[in-house]
Amino acid sequence: MPPPVGPVVDRGVLVGAVAGLVVVLLALAVALLTGRWWRRRTEARRARRLAPGRPLLVALAAGDGDDAVLDRLATLPRAQWRALEPVAVSMLGKLRGGARAAIVALLERRGTAVRALHDSRRRRPTVRARAAHLLGVVGGPGATARLVVLLADRDPDVRAVAARALGRLRDPLAAQPLVRCLTGPGRALPHHVVMPALARVGPPARSALVASADHPDPAVRARVAEALGLIGAVDAAPRLVRTLQEDPSAEVRLRAARALGRLGTPSAVDPLLAATAAHEPPALRATAAHASGAIGARRAVPVLAALVDDPQHWVAHTAAAALAAIGPEGVAALRDLAHAADRPGAAAHAREALGKAPGVAA
Amino acid sequence: MATVLVADDDPDVRDVVVFKLQQSGHEVLVAEDGGAALDLARSSRPDLAVLDVMMPRMTGLDVCRELRADRATAGIPVILLTARAQEGDIESGFAWGADDYLTKPFSPRELDSRVRAVLARSRR
Amino acid sequence: MTVLDLVSVLVVAANWFVLAYFVALNTSYLGLIALAVREFRHHLRRRSWAELDDAYADPLTLGVSVVMPAYNEEATIVESVRAMLSLQHPRFEVVVVVDGSTDRTFEVMQRHFDLVEVPRVVPDDVPTRGVVRSVHAPRAAVPLVVVHTENGGKASANNVGINAARHPLVCMVDADCVLDPDALLALARPFADDPEHVVAAGGVVRAVNDSPVTAGRVAELRMPRRWLARVQVVEYLRAFLLGRSGWSAVGALVVISGAFGLFRRDTVVEVGGFDLDTLGEDAELVVRLHRHLRRERRRYRLVFLPEPVAWTEVPETVRVLGRQRRRWSRGLVQTLWRHRTMIGNPRYGAVGVLALPFYVLFELLAPVVEIGGLVALLLGLLLGAIDWTFAVLFFLVAVGYGVVLSLVALVVEEYSFHRYRGWRDLAAALGATVVENLGYRQVTAWWRLRGLADSLLRRRARWGQMTRKGFTATPHATGAGPVPDTGPVLGPTEVADAR
Asked: Between C183-193 and A191-201, two packed helices, what is the crossing angle to 10 degrees?
């Protein structure tokens, strides 16, 4: 009985396929073996190159800048230094004081910063990002200016690394460009990258931020409010109070409330308490309650105590925690609530908050 | 001259600390994680322990607590080395009987003087 | 033409169909791997300057509640919790939910961590089945909360943990997983980089049998000793690491493993948390998230990270593995059936058009075709419709392509993350690629087929730790979660926890 489907053709196709597969399989196996061999070799080589320099580096860091050690490190053969440089850079982030200064001196002698400035103009984004990182760690003349340029780099990773690096340098000159990243149209940078950098730079960023406080885009206004709190711009508090009271966007008001809590301005307590009113959005109410607790004004106690009975779980929870944060008077109010038999919900939240309040036995 | 136990899982930090303390004439015992640190502390009773807070398996806080819980090791002074600038950590560190703490990034020289101060205090 | 001839024609046709199916399946996988490679390159490039430590200096770092359900884990729970507590992250807590264990899980923890009962109010943001008996915390200031509930099953325990969580991000982990030390920092990173859109991030689960684990970390990664586990190492690599990375690249990630995933708490609450009646509750939740967010026309992202890794022990006995695969198969059926209107529906984007149809065609139906193909091949031989050489060639092509695929996965791992180092591991891995496709695959197909049959016959699920209790809380979204003083600008609302 002859098979109904043409057997010769089929077999030819199948044999070809099997042969092809075998070739591919062999190629893959070779790739696998070469990969492992190559990696083991490079790792061994790196370890060999690292061996002479690393103890010296440790001695330099622990010895607070011994000149003889520094000289020896500065004259290490290039191949050895190339293996050692990343270790030196990562140590820099872990050390402070004389130890740090000693490593910075070493990096200076080996021209790391100069090379980083040069590399920051290279074509490959990986190289630019690494250079930006180095500039942030090592600093030196021209680092801030160069990093500000990199904030507008065409590669998003490079932009982010540059922003973080600027935060690390804490140079007031970086304030304005960083604020622009937050508010301007330009190339996008996650604001979670910009904000910490701004917070490190601090008050010099204030005027640039306030200038954008009336931006038509609520997203920008929200970021500005958040940032004002983070940089500790205490004199911007009246402006934030106005935002809390008048801004049409609930999100912006929430950020303003949070910022006021961070700043700890006592004059903000009444507007914050007003924002806990029942008709406000729950998230804003909870945030405002938290903020008034953070400010720690006794005036807030009665309003917060009433909130502990709120039907919204997180509003009640936050109000109780805020009372605990206010101190003895808040704790006293919580104690009263904890025994309120007619309000079991409030009592439970109060007991929880008392359990966490410092130095209080529930 | 004293025997100091150093526990940190970061080799860079560990090596620098060990080098610094040896330079100051201390004998140094080294552990790479919390469990090893606790074992070493129990077996060789150092005069002082420098513990990183964030270590695998047992944090420095855990080790500190275990040391305090045992009569034999309760007297070993502890200096915590912490990367978290978190008040909660420092608070609970002190609550569990740590004698001093240092935050990373740290200065080896400062560490050395704190070690000296804590040793002097504990010998009094 | 006799009846026999007709049957022969059909059998031969069936064989060609099966071959075509295999080629299509493996080729789609190859496509996924290509996508994954692009992702990896990007990931590796960023890794060198990821500066994860910056989270410590960042005042906006979102807090993470690590939710760890535990059921009868007295032997290992202390070690697991300690390992979790020593993870790196500036603001996190560990929430252990003791799901009505019948052993001394709770007591062991109570003694070791010096737990005392605390008056914590646990909201019912998502429905649960196990009633909360009590909440405990250590006397000392350790960020640990232990919730003791009546037995309600894994999904319910997860939901209890979500309710008790006090941070805007919740991380679901299995108690028996070993995480890389920077796992939380790395998994939380996408939420910091793109706070307005990222709602969930999944990590990889990989097999770790027989590798020495010291101090809650994998000290040295080795290939397992048993072939059954070795094969799963390769399988996890291909299906989880590469497959999911590929799906993530096209925005169609539909599975985030319950063993290691990070979610925005508010979004999970919005969709009602884990489903209490599904076997594959982790996949179901992710599909439901897609469905909800697509319907609301929100811009969102679910991301999968090839690193960090959650290392887990995979089943080493045929019996346990068989049970696991049957359960997975049933879970898949349930999830796909529940969300059947999404399948092929362009309204749900790449998830509807690509991922779900792929799962139907190449996951759900694969065991049917695979077993059917074997039967057809044998039948063809019996009937004389195909001869031996033909059958062997045929089989070699079908299996060979599979081996190629597994090898490609190994090569990708070798050139990207290279977690394995020794030559002996390499030899074992090479052997495993063959065994996986010749033997293992056919056996698992049988289990999956049985799981499929179970679902069709609507047999009741037997899921070790689940004893059904009548109590069900009603879901209700409050529109607010814990809104700590940090959080994404213009993200959905969250609420504050003053600690």
From this structure: 100
Encode burial over B73-102: b for 16+ CB neighbours within 10 A, e otherwise: beebbbbbbbbbeeeebbebbeebebbbbb
Q: Does pTM top 0.90 for this prediction?
A: no
Q: What is the pLDDT of residue C496?
A: 31
pLDDT at C473 over 50: no
Residues of A in contact with B16 (CB under 8 A): 58, 61-62, 91, 94-95, 99
Task: Write the CB contacts of A301 (distance below 8 Å, at least 6 apart in sequence).
Answer: A323, A326, A329, A330, A333
Least confident of A184-188, A357-361, C83-87, C389-393: A357-361
Q: Tell me which residue in B17, B104, B107 faces A97 most closely, judged by beta carbons.
A: B107
Pick B95's closest partner by Cβ from C91, C140, C499: C140
Q: Is B20 on the interface with A (CB under 8 A)?
A: yes
Cβ–Cβ gap A95/B110 under 8 Å: no
User: Does the beta carbon of A50 lie under 8 angstroms from any beta carbon of chain B?
Assistant: no
Does B107 contact chain A (CB < 8 Å)? yes
Interface test with C, best of B8, B32, B62 (most C CBs within 10 A): B62
- Across C92-115, b (16+ Cβ under 10 Å) vs e yields bbbbbbbbbbeeebbebbbeebeb
Residue percentage of chain A with pLDDT more than 90: 43
* Inter-chain touch A286–C495, beta carbons under 8 Å: yes
Domain housing C67: 1-499
- Which ipTM was obtained for this model? 0.90
Domains of chain B: 3-119 (3.40.50.2300)
Total domains present in chain C: 1
Nearest chain B residue (CA) to C215: B57
pLDDT in tens, C400-421: 999 999 999 999 999 988 888 8
Tell me the CATH number at C183. 3.90.550.10
pLDDT confidence of C463, banded at 50, 70, 90? very low
C-alpha B74/C-alpha C421 separation (Å) is 43
Q: Which residues of A touch C404 (CB under 8 A)?
A: 21, 24-25, 28
Query: Residue C273 pLDDT more than 50?
Result: yes
Which pair of structure tokens corresponds to residue C229? 């586990």
Query: Which residues from chain C sit within 8 angstroms of residue B54, using beta carbons?
Result: 86, 88
pLDDT in tens, C235-253: 999 988 999 999 999 999 9
